[in-house]
């Protein structure tokens, strides 16, 4: 490539999300996170010879629901296939999945980056089974002497969502992943926890000279376990591939592993030889006939999607777009918002949620729903601020105590003696003390320096430990200064 | 025409089976016999006939989403050649073979 060529990155994403059904997809074993190893198994999900799969109807329903939420067409006649490969996490030697007739196809998801809406096309949404969970007894995958297998996860319903190669930046990839998660959580098909692995993401990345319509060689990137990781990994890989091309090299078709601690990708295996999975129709499962009536019934029962929810919050509660979108994309936030906004001013609640509350949740690593904070607490704080009982600054300090202890804000204000001083006599006494102690600034004010008054207000606040009512302080201070000038 | 010894070797590798040269040659011949037999189907006119994946005409054979108790961990692990606590233990993964 000539020097100075500008490159663009082309990304397609493949996301797997575990279905939140009560039982597994091809057997009746319970689905639950964190059970002791190998306590949720049966001959089917252990891959015992002769055991026969039996399809969970709700898993199909959830897949249709996810596909509809992603604006997909639903395949009227769908079936399952065997994907054959050898790996210890797959006891049968094959995975039951879908091949040429995925349940959903040709959909899209709109994401917003820097105020611009970008449509990412969805190629397919299909249903398959989870593998067992493999952990490595050694330090890492290369040095591990042994691997340990837990089949609790084996056979949990899994949806695979594949995009067209429409993503053109790390920002778009992150926005897509966030929006996809919000959508799947909103329609209740998966809890999509990246940290716990119930949502996993792979990215197919290539680069090409900007403006070219040919695709470069694909690199498949694995082990992306957070929104931050998807952003950093794509940034890194785009730069790496551009550098290879710039120096006259060829990007090799391979699978690479994202190392989050090192912040780089590492070679895993070559993809020069296409994998041969010998797909063939699963003879033990009958085909699916998905009627239009069923699809319509599922469509009618669909919960509100994030975009519709954000629009409603802007319309009904007067939220600004950023707050509305941020809240609508998180079930944690929107549940809390609706509970609190029933008792307090919507935009004020939103300000607390995206500000102090989100910051406290992030800093403590405790999810809002698991925290001690209740919607009534925030409603009470807002009402105390509105009535002038406490200032905004004190409210933030009270909030910290509420977050830590779960005590009611009114109790904390009483115990800590934080209620605002609005009593005229008390305020006037403080103001007089401040005027007496600061003859310099008082003279400055007399000489027409308006700014001197903010210094004096600050002194009153200091004297009252932040409890003086600001409006009252201002009024009384001006009165007292006028008197001092006479 | 037909399968070569190299094809049979590739197939054996994929199935994680190891054969001697003589065994492979014998398997190649047997494979070719079988393919020739099945190949009769290639002479049938199937113009316009959709592929059949199942010899029955059922669809939508499914169950409700009701969890049922399965095996105890001890029963699940009873046939395991090797275990570690309540885990199955397997030999280390060979780099480059990972899937999934
Ligand atoms: Zn099972």
What is the fold's blueprint, element by element?
The complex is a heterodimer of chains A (486) and B (100).
Chain A: E1 7-18, E2 55-56, H1 57-69, E3 73-74, E4 77-78, E5 81-84, E6 94-97, E7 104-113, E8 116-129, E9 133-136, E10 146-150, E11 157-163, H2 170-186, E12 199-209, E13 219-224, H3 227-246, E14 254-259, E15 264-270, E16 280-281, E17 288-289, H4 292-300, H5 306-317, H6 321-328, H7 331-341, H8 346-364, H9 375-386, H10 392-405, H11 409-416, H12 424-437, H13 439-446, H14 452-463, H15 470-485
Parallel strand pairs in A: 13-14
Antiparallel strand pairs in A: 1-11, 1-12, 3-7, 4-17, 5-6, 5-16, 7-8, 8-11, 9-10, 12-13, 14-15
Helix pairs in contact in A: 2-3, 5-6, 6-8, 7-8, 7-9, 9-10, 12-14, 12-15, 13-14, 14-15
Chain B: H1 5-14, H2 21-38, E1 62-63, H3 73-77, E2 83-84, E3 87-91
Antiparallel strand pairs in B: 2-3
Helix pairs in contact in B: 1-2
The structure holds zinc ion.
Zinc ion (ZN) binds at residues 24, 27, 29, 41-42, 44-45, 155 of chain A.
């Amino acid at each position: 490539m000539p020097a100075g060529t500008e490159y663009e990155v082309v990304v397609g994403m493949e996301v797997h999300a575990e279905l939140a059904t009560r039982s597994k997809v091809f057997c009746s074993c319970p689905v639950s996170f964190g059970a002791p190893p190998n306590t949720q198994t049966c001959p089917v999900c252990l891959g015992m010879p002769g055991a026969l799969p039996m399809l969970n109807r709700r898993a199909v329903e959830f897949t249709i629901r996810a596909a509809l939420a992603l604006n997909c067409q639903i395949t009227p006649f769908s079936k399952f296939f065997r994907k054959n490969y050898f790996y210890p996490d797959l006891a049968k030697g094959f995975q039951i999945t879908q091949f040429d007739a995925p349940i959903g196809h040709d959909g899209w998801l709109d994401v917003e980056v820097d105020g611009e809406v970008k449509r990412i096309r969805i190629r397919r949404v299909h249903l398959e089974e989870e593998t067992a969970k493999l952990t490595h007894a050694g330090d890492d995958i290369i040095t591990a002497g042994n691997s340990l297998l837990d089949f609790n996860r084996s056979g949990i319903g899994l949806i695979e969502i594949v995009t067209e190669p429409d993503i053109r930046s790390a920002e778009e990839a992150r926005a897509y992943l966030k929006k996809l998660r919000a959508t799947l959580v909103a329609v209740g098909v998966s809890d999509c926890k990246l940290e716990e692995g119930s949502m996993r993401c792979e990215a197919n990345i290539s680069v090409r000279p900007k403006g070219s319509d040919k695709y470069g060689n694909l690199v498949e990137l694995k082990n992306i376990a957070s929104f931050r990781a998807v952003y950093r990994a794509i940034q890194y890989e785009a730069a790496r591939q551009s550098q290879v091309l710039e120096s006259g090299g060829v990007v090799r078709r391979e699978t690479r592993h994202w190392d989050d601690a090192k912040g780089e990708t590492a070679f895993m295996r070559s993809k020069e030889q296409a994998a041969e999975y010998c797909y063939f129709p699963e003879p033990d499962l009958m085909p699916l006939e998905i009627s239009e009536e069923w699809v319509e019934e599922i469509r009618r029962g669909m919960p509100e999607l994030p975009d519709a929810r954000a629009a409603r919050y802007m319309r009904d509660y007067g939220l600004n777009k950023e707050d509305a979108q941020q809240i609508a994309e998180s079930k944690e936030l929107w549940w809390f918002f609706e509970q609190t906004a029933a008792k307090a001013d919507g935009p004020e609640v939103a300000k607390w949620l995206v500000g102090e509350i989100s910051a406290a949740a992030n800093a403590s690593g405790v999810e809002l729903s698991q925290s001690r904070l209740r919607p009534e607490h925030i409603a009470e704080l807002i009402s105390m601020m509105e009535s002038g009982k406490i200032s905004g600054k004190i409210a933030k300090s009270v909030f910290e105590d509420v977050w830590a202890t779960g005590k009611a804000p009114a109790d904390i204000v009483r115990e800590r003696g934080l209620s605002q001083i609005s009593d005229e006599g008390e305020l006037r006494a403080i103001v007089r003390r401040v005027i007496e102690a600061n003859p310099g600034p008082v003279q400055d004010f007399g000489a027409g320096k308006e700014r001197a008054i903010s210094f004096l207000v600050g002194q009153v606040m200091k004297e009252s430990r932040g409890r003086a009512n600001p409006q009252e302080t201002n009024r009384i201070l001006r009165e007292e200064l006028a008197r001092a000038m006479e | 025409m037909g399968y070569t010894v190299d094809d049979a070797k590739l197939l054996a590798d994929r199935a994680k089976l190891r054969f001697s040269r003589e065994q492979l040659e014998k398997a190649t011949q047997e494979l070719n016999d079988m393919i020739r037999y099945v190949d009769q189907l290639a002479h049938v006119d199937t113009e316009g006939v959709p592929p059949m994946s199942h010899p029955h005409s059922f669809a939508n054979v499914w169950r409700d989403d009701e969890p049922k108790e399965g095996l105890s961990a001890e029963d699940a692990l009873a046939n395991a050649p090797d275990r570690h606590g309540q885990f199955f233990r397997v030999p280390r993964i060979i780099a480059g073979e990972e899937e999934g």
